[in-house]
């Protein structure tokens, strides 16, 4: 078994538990940039030189072989370029979810299986449960505050069958205590929250530099719903649906209430703002569904709950799968606010993750 070791506390304890469970474990760390200094600085538990060294030391303490796998080219194309392209289209991507889909449970798993390993273990907080027919289901972690099932909602049945999440039933603070008891120096290492490939955390500045002369970098007008110009901006990549801060509007709203980004039009460079109530969404259309285990049948209708952000609330809804099984439409019983194309809609039934799809359009509640 391969244990993906990021250099953080979670993956280190997951590797140690896999060894204790009787698996023959080899630790690997992913080199995601040919120039690590171009990615996030500081020891935060992802992909810096410090993180690689932390992972190696943890593997030494656990007593397992350790290797670094260079996936920088694949990561750049499948995650970094996808991030840029999605923002350039006026949408809002989730790079961590894309990394799980394309890197950790595709490129890594494929290489591991080709080398004769049977599974990949990670420090994600989620649970796998066997089914009566010999399959496997993905479920929320016992510690809902640390649950990461949302970003794993892109995994298919084959990937889940070759995955192991040893921390799924354990609260985070217990994991830290266990790491300290095992002598792992990462026991108190801070969690990683920022986008790993944006070195200083300034994603707007990073996009401005990387997008160069592409259309969204040319700036444009910030307008209200009537089309009145309220301000100017330097590029639509600096905005996302539902954003309130950083709008820098020259004219306050007549009612004195804050305004939020309602729409982003990357071709003209127009950003439309308005009151929060105009962000309420009652219907979502999404494509590229990926099913975690048994899929929902084409032309079927099912009751679900829907999570629309990595740490967002669940919303009750009904999902309709089209006849070809290629798109889904979700009617929200509980309206959601600030939902943007490009985000993932992850579907649940109870604690079980049914699957996910990428949002292409939303329909707002009309007054």
UniProtKB/TrEMBL annotation:
GO terms for biological process: tRNA wobble position uridine thiolation. Pfam families: tRNA_Me_trans, tRNA_Me_trans_C, tRNA_Me_trans_M. It is an enzyme of class 2 (transferase). ATP binds at residues 4-11, 30, 123. Keywords: ATP-binding, Cytoplasm, Disulfide bond, Nucleotide-binding, RNA-binding, Transferase, tRNA processing, tRNA-binding. SUPFAM superfamilies: Adenine nucleotide alpha hydrolases-like. The record marks 124, 343 as: Interaction with tRNA. It catalyses: S-sulfanyl-L-cysteinyl-[protein] + uridine(34) in tRNA + AH2 + ATP = 2-thiouridine(34) in tRNA + L-cysteinyl-[protein] + A + AMP + diphosphate + H(+). It is found in: Cytoplasm. The active site is at residues 99, 196. Disulfide bonds join 99-196. Residues 146-148 are annotated as: Interaction with tRNA. GO terms for molecular function: ATP binding; tRNA binding; tRNA-uridine 2-sulfurtransferase activity. The keyword Nucleotide-binding applies. One of its GO terms (cellular component) is cytoplasm. Its EC number is 2.8.1.13. NCBIfam families: PRK00143.1, trmU. Catalyzes the 2-thiolation of uridine at the wobble position (U34) of tRNA, leading to the formation of s(2)U34. Belongs to the MnmA/TRMU family. This is tRNA-specific 2-thiouridylase MnmA. It comes from Nocardioides humilatus. The lineage of its organism: Bacteria, Bacillati, Actinomycetota, Actinomycetes, Propionibacteriales. The gene is mnmA.
């Amino acid at each position: 078994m391969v244990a993906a070791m990021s250099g953080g506390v979670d993956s280190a304890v997951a590797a140690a538990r896999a060894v204790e469970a009787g698996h023959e474990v080899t630790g690997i760390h992913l080199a995601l940039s040919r120039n690590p200094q171009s990615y996030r600085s500081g020891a935060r538990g992802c992909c810096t030189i410090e993180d690689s060294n932390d992972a190696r030391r943890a593997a030494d303490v656990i007593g397992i072989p350790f290797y670094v796998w260079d996936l920088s080219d694949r990561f750049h194309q499948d995650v970094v370029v996808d991030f840029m392209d999605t923002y350039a289209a006026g949408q809002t991507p989730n790079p961590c979810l894309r990394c799980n889909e394309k890197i950790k449970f595709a490129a890594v798993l494929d290489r591991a299986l080709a080398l004769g390993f049977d599974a990949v273990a990670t420090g994600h907080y989620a649970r796998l449960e066997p089914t009566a027919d010999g399959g496997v289901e993905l479920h929320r972690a016992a510690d809902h505050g640390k649950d990461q099932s949302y970003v794993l909602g892109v995994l298919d049945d084959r990937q889940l069958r070759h995955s192991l999440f040893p921390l799924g039933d354990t609260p985070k603070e217990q994991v830290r205590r266990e790491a300290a008891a095992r002598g792992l120096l990462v026991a108190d290492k801070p969690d990683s929250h920022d986008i790993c490939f944006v070195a200083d955390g300034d994603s707007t500045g990073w996009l401005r530099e990387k997008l160069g002369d592409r259309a969204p970098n040319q700036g444009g007008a910030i307008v209200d719903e009537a089309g009145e110009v309220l301000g100017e901006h330097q590029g639509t990549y600096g905005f996302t649906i539902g954003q309130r801060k950083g709008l820098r509007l020259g004219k306050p709203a007549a009612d004195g209430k804050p305004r939020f980004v309602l729409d982003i039009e990357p071709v003209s460079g127009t950003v439309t703002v308005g009151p929060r109530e105009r962000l309420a969404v009652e219907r979502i259309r999404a494509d590229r569904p990926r099913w975690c285990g048994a899929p929902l049948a084409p032309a079927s209708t099912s009751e679900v709950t829907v999570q629309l952000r990595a740490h967002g609330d669940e919303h009750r809804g009904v999902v309709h799968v089209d006849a070809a099984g290629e798109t889904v439409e979700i009617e929200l019983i509980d309206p959601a606010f600030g939902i943007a194309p490009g985000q993932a809609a992850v579907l649940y039934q109870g604690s079980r993750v049914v699957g996910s799809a990428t949002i292409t359009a939303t329909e707002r509640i009309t007054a």
